[in-house]
Design brief:
The complex is a heterotrimer of chains A (240), B (277) and C (262). Chain A is an alpha+beta fold. Chain A contains 5 helices and 9 strands. Among the domains of chain B are: 77 residues, Nucleic acid-binding proteins (OB fold (Dihydrolipoamide Acetyltransferase, E2P)), CATH 2.40.50; 97 residues, K Homology domain, type 1 (Ribosomal Protein S8, Chain: A, domain 1, 2-Layer Sandwich), CATH 3.30.1370. The chains are: A alpha+beta (240), B alpha+beta (277), C alpha+beta (262).
Chain lengths: 240, 277, 262
């Protein structure tokens, strides 16, 4: 029996409802908020600023440092202990690698750009939401970057390719579901994050990568709109 | 073969600003195949066939001759280290600190202590972003009293306004003394009930820096807050003249005689020799 | 803090004006919202000026402490997230964050607003552990008062999750049962700069404080917890004045609290 009608009633290639904002954290140099379904992420950018510890400095260009963290009450089950875990450290690393291909920090040698990501609630797809929020924050901070970075997951549930799995779908059938979180540079369609849990045939994998593209382009538009709206809202208020 | 944006439009990274080969990308824009895209958040500026984007946000990068407001963060063997609201700190060497003579081994905190704020001018920036500043010159000195405000460094030109018109209006309305550093640090001091109005006005300019008709908006805000008429707030040419720094008294004033003795003075190049009585 | 800046603040306070134009006894307008995190059993968001914090409650089953076999556990934690301020760094909880958590925790515990015995499922074996985390998203001062408010709102918003036949918690379903709070212990911090007393200090004012006193107030004006901070001493007449101020301010905030969460 194939999975044809999604639990949430969404179309197969339809992501959950998206909210994207910029400039949400006043004390930061740039910030973003990205919510997809019941998964929400805040991101703040501090810097470029002086890099500590000194041994991490790169005299050729600034470095990017990402920190993904789930709030203790944001997990599906029991309280998540605060502080870094194996999982959060790995996600921090792949987040950095997902963002690095677009940012250009040559103008800021010896400095660091710190990106902090905090999730107040999660329901699958938290690393993707974190990357989406972080890209908004970087753009809001005025960092030179050739494009934004949208991220979403694509997967297979009972042989059917679906975009943006939610928690219920992830848990539907532990053996038959495959979950592929990925991030893309929209202008060149290069993939900057690619992971997978589950089992999938080669052909299905390639089809999945094509299926998810429109959703990623839509998310990129939402990200760009979020950064722009910060300025348009104020300009709108100006006219009154 | 056409433009996708208008002059002064806000653009974001990755946004297509023009297609075809007719236009050329400059700062803040790049070419990808037959498209020109923005590579940072900014305001589009079209100059003939050249498209660039002027940054709206971002950190301060030190530039020679900028006047900045620095904070003393370290006292060195031969000067002070200043935080200049930038990823790169600056050094104020003893020889550039004051026209007074500072004896060797003197307690440097008597001149500038930790956490003091100073107005300084950048005299050198190396390729490695090592920065030297001076406090010798008109309007360069330690800041006593007052408070410090931080704004986006890229909003500073708007806060100052054409020939200083915007900041002069704020000063006129609130009677505050204001020093705007190019690095986005602003020092201000005035009567308590007026000072926070000046702060709010400056924040307003910062928030609306990318909009048109800002002067009128700030004027009506200040009029509403202070009860002054819009006429009284209009900045005239003579206000701007008064705004210019006083004559160069600091240069002319003979240096105070220091009580200290100077052991083993280093020979200086002629230009740097102190004028001593 | 730089003495020149501080002198300037004190001079303004003498004229009855604070850095942002507030009066000395004026709180920033407080916004409070509950149900901000779907994964928490209860949650709240508080906002005042540029301070914004989120509190979330998680409930789980665990074994009671040996000395109190028939009591559940309520614990408040705080962390000064580096996302919220350039001055905060990643790493183990700082002493500032521990103080915030402990002062809020103490108010709730000592007010007996909450019967921990009602959290007992099976004596000596199984009790409810209620953990409340308070995290700033934007930090501009006064996290004790605002965090305390968010914690109370989140606790009022909290509903027990369902427990299945095998005795395991089913976090996907909530029951109607809430935590019966008897009291609302509202913490109010009064700061002292020079000779002047202020409420709800912003970050810059906090850095200039000579001393502060947090008083956790109950509805009838009773004080249920105290915490003096800062290095300057306080006179008894100052303490009297601070308590009066705290009583008045706590009444305003309590009213707001009653409006948002049940």
């Amino acid at each position: 029996m194939a999975y044809e009608k999604r639990i949430s009633g969404r179309a197969l290639d339809e992501p959950r409802k998206i909210t994207a904002n910029a400039g949400v954290i006043k004390k930061a140099d740039g910030s973003g908020y990205f919510k997809i379904g019941e998964t929400a992420a805040y991101a703040a950018v501090y810097g470029p600023r002086e890099c500590h510890p000194a041994f991490m400095r790169n005299p050729k260009m600034g470095i990017l440092r990402c920190n993904y963290s789930m709030m203790p009450f944001s997990g599906d089950g029991e309280r998540v202990r605060p502080g870094p875990s194996r999982r959060s450290k790995e996600i921090s690393m792949v987040t950095k690698n997902a963002l690095l291909p677009v940012v250009d920090l040559k103008e800021y040698p010896n400095t660091v750009v710190d990106v902090f990501i905090e999730l107040p609630e999660t329901d699958a797809g938290s690393r993707c939401a974190g990357i989406c929020a972080a890209a908004i924050a970087l753009a809001d901070a005025g960092i030179t970057m050739r494009d934004v970075v949208p991220a979403v997951s694509v997967g297979q549930v009972d042989g059917t390719i679906v975009v943006d799995l939610d928690g219920a779908e992830e848990h539907l059938d532990e053996n038959a579901a495959a979950d592929i979180p990925l991030a893309m540079v929209p202008s060149t369609e290069e993939i900057t994050l690619l992971q997978m849990d589950g089992i999938v045939e080669q052909d299905t994998l390639f089809r999945a990568l094509e299926t998810v593209k429109p959703a990623l382009h839509n998310i990129a538009e939402a990200q760009r709109r979020a950064v722009k709206e910060c300025y348009q809202q104020q300009a709108g208020g100006d006219a009154q | 073969m056409d433009l996708r944006v208008q002059d002064k439009e806000v653009v974001v990274p990755g946004q297509v600003v023009a297609t075809g080969m007719e236009y050329l990308p400059a700062d803040g824009a790049y070419r990808l195949d037959d498209e020109i895209r923005a590579n940072r958040l900014g305001l589009i500026k079209i100059e003939g066939k050249v498209i660039k984007s002027i940054p709206l946000t971002g950190v301060y990068l030190p530039q020679k001759n900028d006047v900045v407001v620095g904070r003393v963060i370290d006292i060195l063997m031969s000067g002070w280290r200043l935080d200049i609201n930038s990823p790169y700190s600056a050094v104020l060497p003893i020889k550039d600190a004051t026209f007074d003579f500072i004896a060797k081994g003197a307690d440097l905190t008597k001149y500038f202590d930790l956490d003091d704020y100073v107005v300084a001018k950048i005299i050198q920036v190396t390729s490695q972003n090592l920065v030297d500043v001076t406090c010798k010159g008109q309007g360069l000195h330690k800041l006593d009293g007052g408070r410090i405000l931080k704004v986006g460094p890229h909003k500073v030109p708007r806060i100052i306004g054409t020939k200083g018109s915007m900041i002069t209006m704020v000063k006129k309305a609130t009677n505050c003394r204001v020093i705007v550093g190019q690095n986005g640090r602003i020092w201000l001091s005035g009567e308590p009930d007026k000072e926070h109005v000046a702060v709010k006005a400056i924040k307003m300019i910062e928030d609306l820096a990318h909009t048109v008709g800002l002067t009128e908006q700030v004027k009506s805000f200040l009029a509403e807050q202070t009860g002054l008429s819009a006429d009284a707030l209009t900045v005239k040419e003579e206000d701007l003249v008064a705004e210019r720094p006083k004559d160069e008294q600091r240069h002319r004033r003979p240096p105070r005689r220091s009580g200290g003795t100077r052991d083993g003075p280093r020979r200086r190049p002629y230009g740097e020799r102190r004028q001593r009585r | 803090m730089n003495q020149e800046r501080k002198k300037h603040i004190v001079r303004a306070l003498a004229a009855g004006v604070r850095l942002d134009g507030r009066k000395l006894d004026e709180f920033r307008p407080v916004e409070l919202k509950v149900g901000v995190s779907s994964t928490a059993e209860g949650s709240a968001m508080v906002k005042a000026g540029d301070t914004e914090a989120i509190a979330g409650v998680k409930m789980g089953l665990g074994t009671p402490y040996p000395d109190t076999p028939d009591s559940g556990v309520l614990m408040v934690n705080a962390e000064l997230l580096p996302i919220s301020n350039p001055e905060f760094e990643s790493g183990p909880p700082s002493i500032e964050s521990i103080e915030v958590a402990r002062v809020i925790d103490r108010g709730i515990r000592e007010s007996h607003s909450f019967d921990t015995k009602s959290l007992c499922v099976e004596k000596g074996e199984k009790v409810w552990m209620v953990q409340c985390d308070i995290l700033p998203l934007n930090f501009d001062g006064n996290l004790i008062d605002l965090g305390g408010l968010a914690v109370l709102a989140a606790l009022r918003d909290a509903r027990f999750p369902k427990v299945d036949e095998e005795g395991a918690v089913d976090y996907h379903e909530k029951t109607d049962k809430g935590l019966a709070l008897q009291q609302l212990p509202v913490p109010i911090t009064v700061g002292k700069i020079g000779e002047h007393l202020i409420v709800d200090p912003a970050q810059e004012e906090e850095q200039a404080l000579d001393a502060r006193l947090t008083m956790t107030m109950l509805a009838d004006g009773t004080v249920c917890a105290l915490q003096k901070g800062g290095q300057a001493p306080l006179t008894i007449s100052e303490i009297k004045e601070m308590v009066k101020l705290a009583d008045a301010k706590s009444k305003e905030l309590r009213k707001q609290l009653l409006e948002v969460a049940t």
